[in-house]
Write a structure and sequence with these properties.
Radius of gyration: 25 Å
Distance between the termini: 31 Å
Mean pLDDT: 79
Order of helices and strands: HHHHH
Number of strands: 0
Number of helices: 5
Length: 166
């Protein structure tokens, strides 16, 4: 008699019975359990940092738009020459383009982190980790770098690679 079998043949199935061995991995957990526990940390960290990074980017966009609309560039002061002022305004336009690209990158990092957490799309998860290592593209700038590196290391683990294939 194996663990969880009910000795009374006339009663219903035991709700506390452990499923048979073919439903479990050799480590004793559900399939992909070891890999799922390995990717959980970096995936959740990246999922938490992504909305924070997007919020900061939205605030930066608002500040840039304010500077463009009002023509005020606070760091130059009142006595700024026209060329410096024009350069700062052009810098705001370039910064806006970069901010929008960074928001798209943040959304992709969030998508990849979700896929990593679900062990579904290895390419998306791996590229999200690589994208989060890029300093100006990662969530909260420098905070995404260690979690991206952690994710890259975990994604190269053979057990994790195998879990993504199944």
């Amino acid at each position: 008699m194996s663990f969880g079998d009910n000795p009374n043949q006339y009663s219903g199935p035991n709700p506390y019975a452990v499923p048979s061995g073919d439903q479990f991995s050799p480590t004793g957990g559900p399939p992909g359990g070891a890999a799922a526990s390995k990717v959980k940390g970096p995936a959740i960290a990246l999922l938490i940092l992504c909305p924070i990074g997007i919020l900061f980017l939205c605030l930066d966009i608002a500040g840039r738009i304010y500077g463009i609309v009002t023509g005020e560039v606070g760091f130059l002061g009142e006595n700024a020459q026209a060329a410096q002022m024009q350069g700062a305004v052009i810098g705001n336009y370039v910064g806006l383009v970069f901010d929008f690209l960074a928001i798209i990158g943040q959304a992709y990092v969030g998508f990849g982190a979700y896929k990593m957490l679900k062990l579904e799309n290895r390419q998306a998860a791996y590229s999200a980790c690589v994208l989060s290592v890029i300093p100006c593209m990662s969530a909260c700038c420098l905070l995404g770098i260690p979690f991206g590196i952690w994710g890259i290391v975990v994604m190269n683990d053979p057990a994790v690679k195998q879990a993504f294939r199944s």
